[in-house]
Design goal:
By secondary structure, the chain is α+β, with helices and mostly antiparallel strands. It has 6 helices and 5 strands. α1 runs antiparallel to α2. The protein is elongated, with a radius of gyration of 21 Å.
Length: 191
């Protein structure tokens, strides 16, 4: 019964952390959510450790322990240290060379859509993507777009990005969602 209670607490905290992560990515007031997310992650970690220790003490492995045994038995191309996925990490992913290098990459590789030039359209496309535990940019998606041509160009540029330095949580590489605005301004168009 206690194991079930701990599992329910973990599920509730996972849902809360997921909701905070979504709000975190969509809001501009990130300081408020940063504190709540760190607290949630700490509680999740403690409850997860308590549940697995309780399962080992009673001789009944938890579902998570059963899944991890099955995952390590497969041993595809994954390393023995499985990556953790989270919305907030201790060390955020970083573009190799820093933000100046990132902005230079975006300026060098972004092509202003012809339809935007003709219609004199400007705006900002918000792209969210995941930096995996190897630093690769995966699963780019548009959070807020302005036009299909602009959205397609933003996705194209994000897919071109070289590997990043991955984020870390508790000393392990972590898959981390990252949201980036890509601004399209007519003044930046090369004639």
């Amino acid at each position: 019964m206690q194991n079930l209670t701990a599992t329910l607490r973990i599920r509730r905290l996972e849902l809360a952390a997921s909701a905070y992560g979504l709000l975190f990515s969509l809001t501009r007031n990130r300081r408020f959510f940063d504190r709540k997310i760190k607290t949630g992650i700490l509680l999740l970690s403690l409850l997860g450790l308590a549940a697995s220790a309780e399962g080992q003490a009673t001789g009944h492995p938890t579902k998570k322990a059963k899944r991890s045994k099955a995952a390590t038995a497969k041993k595809d191309t994954a390393s023995s240290d499985e990556a953790v996925f989270c919305y907030a990490v201790e060390m955020m992913p970083a573009y190799k060379g820093g933000t100046d290098s990132l902005f230079a990459f975006l300026a060098r590789n972004t092509r202003y859509p012809q339809s935007g030039i003709e219609n004199k359209k400007e705006g900002t496309v918000y792209v969210q993507f995941t930096i995996d535990s190897l630093g690769r940019v995966v699963n780019p998606r548009i959070l807020k777009g302005i036009d299909p041509d602009f959205d397609a160009e933003a996705l194209r540029v994000v897919r071109l990005m070289p590997p990043w330095i991955p984020g870390e949580l508790l000393g392990k590489k972590a898959n981390t969602d990252y949201t980036m605005p890509i601004k399209f301004r007519l003044t930046d168009v090369k004639k």
